[in-house]
Amino acid sequence: MARVVGLGYLIVNATDLDSWKEFASNLLGLQVDSFTPERLVLRMDEASYRLEIRKDDSDSVNAIGWEVRGPEDLDELAAKLEEDGYAVKRSDSVAVAARRVSGLVEFDDPEGQRVELFYGLQQHRERFVSPTGARFVTGAGGLGHLFQMVSDREKYDALYLKLLGFKLSDYIEFVPGVYATFTHANQRHHSFAYAQVPNVPSNIMHAMFEVEELDVVGRAWDKVQAGGAPIKATFGKHTNDEMISFYVQSPSGFQVEYGYGGKLIDEDTWKPVRYSAASYWGHKRSDPDEPDL
């Protein structure tokens, strides 16, 4: 059965590329592959890129790139999406080359967020070198995870769990009947999570990047406390994936969770459960009106 296997890349719109370059390289430890007045391309492993930041008049996540195993899976998923009413665009050779992939289709999710399915991401011929010494947890787990606030949770259940082949990890319940759904596409505890929360607008709330050493997170937290980025949630440990992390605001407005020690899923033994809190300790929100995630 065709399915998504991981988060491959993010395309981001930004009004300030200089701030993104400082944030991504000095704080997060991403490697700058190229930097022009119109575009910043960032690496975190041997892939040719994982983030592309584009100069724009507004700040937003332009596109989410989900990876599939090959051309047959890409065609099968595109057909399933079309049968369910999604307008799927088969990308031409120019778009495929721009994304540095071997095949690509595009569609908009129920909130209008551009989503791309691809296979065959180009690998870089030079070894990844982090300016901060960070080594990122990627590989079969993809670049990390995304959390999206939505206005209709059932539509995302149908899109991600039924059409794209994600599997349920677990839930976190804020108050009775209001909860977040966590889903996985590989061994990473979750690649995509979403929640429908009253009075909270629909958007990409955060992207998570995981590193191999707790000390790297600690040194980055020192920089944050010294003013390196606006703090959105303090150092803490999550309940469901056990990630030790903090949250900051990126130059494009969405948050970045930077963490260590995320749980892996064994599909043969995994059973979804429900949690009553997002964290065992820490993760105190700077904005008390934001969901505790």
Architecture overview:
- By secondary structure, this protein is α+β, with helices and mostly antiparallel strands.
- It folds into two domains: 6-119, Roll (2,3-Dihydroxybiphenyl 1,2-Dioxygenase, domain 1); 139-282, 2,3-Dihydroxybiphenyl 1,2-Dioxygenase, domain 1.
- It contains five helices and 18 strands.
- The strands form two sheets. A ten-stranded mixed β-sheet has the order 17-10-11-12-9-13-16-15-14-18, covered by helices on one side. An eight-stranded mixed β-sheet has the order 2-3-4-1-5-8-7-6, sandwiched between helices.
- A hairpin with a 3-residue loop joins strand 2 and strand 3.
- The mean pLDDT is 97.
Widest sheet, order of strands: 17-10-11-12-9-13-16-15-14-18
Q: Provide the residue-averaged pLDDT.
A: 97
Principal-axis shape: globular
Q: Main sheet?
A: 10 strands, mixed
Alpha-carbon distance between the two ends: 32 Å
SS strand fraction = 35-45%
Helix content: 10-25%
* Total of helices: 5
- Rounded to an integer in angstroms, the radius of gyration calculated over CA atoms is 18 Å
Identify the CATH homologous superfamily of the largest domain: 2,3-Dihydroxybiphenyl 1,2-Dioxygenase, domain 1
Question: Could you give the count of β-strands?
Answer: 18
Q: Spans of 5+ residues with little confidence (pLDDT < 50)?
A: none
Q: Per CATH, what is the topology of the largest domain?
A: 2,3-Dihydroxybiphenyl 1,2-Dioxygenase, domain 1
Topology as a string of helices (H) and strands (E): EHEEEEHEHEEEHEEEEHEEEEE
The CATH class assignment of the largest domain is: Alpha Beta
Overall CATH architecture of the largest domain:
Roll
